[in-house]
Amino acid sequence: MRYLVRNDRGEELVCPSLADLHALYRQGFLADDDRVRQESGDRWERLGDFAPFRGERERRTAPRRGLLLAAVATAAAVLLWRILAGR
Hints:
The protein contains 2 helices and 4 strands; from the N terminus they run E-E-H-E-E-H. By secondary structure, it is α+β, with helices and mostly antiparallel strands.
């Protein structure tokens, strides 16, 4: 089944399958606020609320949380090292 995606500028994209739609979302080409509908349907849904994407947003943002945590831990270690080295 094909899907239509519309962004806030009114531009539309046709995705040949749900797998392609997922891939574009994971790679950051599609945003939560973009609208999606099945080609045969008439109801547009916000991509972030689209039922087949439940859990996809968490998987997409999880690596960012990990990087943020690593950066904070590194900064704390450097600060602690500077404090201890100053003694």
